[in-house]
Write a structure and sequence with these properties.
With 146 residues, this protein is of the alpha+beta class. It has helices spanning 4-13, 20-32, 38-48, 54-66, 135-142; strands at 36-37, 70-74, 80-84, 92-96, 102-105, 129-132. The protein has two domains: 1-88, Winged helix-like DNA-binding domain superfamily/Winged helix DNA-binding domain (Arc Repressor Mutant, subunit A, Orthogonal Bundle), CATH 1.10.10.10; 89-146, Dna Ligase, domain 1 (2-Layer Sandwich), CATH 3.30.1490. Strands 1-3-2 form a three-stranded antiparallel sheet. The protein has a three-stranded mixed sheet with strand order 5-4-6, with no helix packed on it. Helix 2 (20-32) crosses helix 3. The termini are far apart. The structure holds zinc ion (3 copies). The site of one zinc ion (ZN) has 5 residues, from loops.
Length: 146
């Protein structure tokens, strides 16, 4: 699923042109493997094509995120991070406040709410990240000082 051809085919099926900057951006996301900031991606793209400007990169990140090809998270005191969306399902992310690691939360808690609890809203869209401390950081945080 996450090879460049499959990603580009999805983009084209949605009616988007396969520009050189989009190609380089997807290539960069695959190469950086995992989460990357816009700045890191900008660097990857401009090392290969100096003619691409940062507003094009930001616009393409918005477009690809909107299409569901990318995941985006907000990490406190850090830039936004992007990664390829490895799952086609709606999901959220858990972010460790200590190590800034990012985990996928496969289930959407909204699924467990009934129509009353959701005030009979329709066309729901949910966008949120969940913050806490990962297991490894919990161990470090509770370790007694020597
Ligand atoms: Zn994700
Ligand atoms: Zn952590
Ligand atoms: Zn959700």
């Amino acid at each position: 699923m996450n090879d460049i051809f499959a990603l580009e085919e999805r983009l084209q099926r949605k009616g988007y042109k396969l520009t050189r900057s989009r190609h380089l951006l997807l290539e960069g996301l695959l190469a950086l493997d995992g989460w990357a900031s816009a700045q890191q991606l900008f660097q990857y793209v401009t090392e290969r094509d100096a003619g691409v400007n940062s507003s094009t990169i930001y616009r393409n990140l918005e477009t690809l995120t909107g299409l569901g090809l990318l995941c985006r998270v907000e990490v406190a005191h850090s830039p936004q991070y992007f990664s390829l969306n490895k799952t086609q399902n709606h999901h959220h992310h858990l972010i460790c406040k200590s190590c800034k690691g990012i985990w996928t939360l496969d289930h959407c808690p909204l699924r467990h709410l009934n129509a009353e609890e959701l005030h009979r809203f329709s066309g729901l869209e949910c966008k949120f990240d969940v913050y806490g401390y990962c297991e490894a950081c919990q161990a470090k945080l509770t370790a007694p000082e020597s």
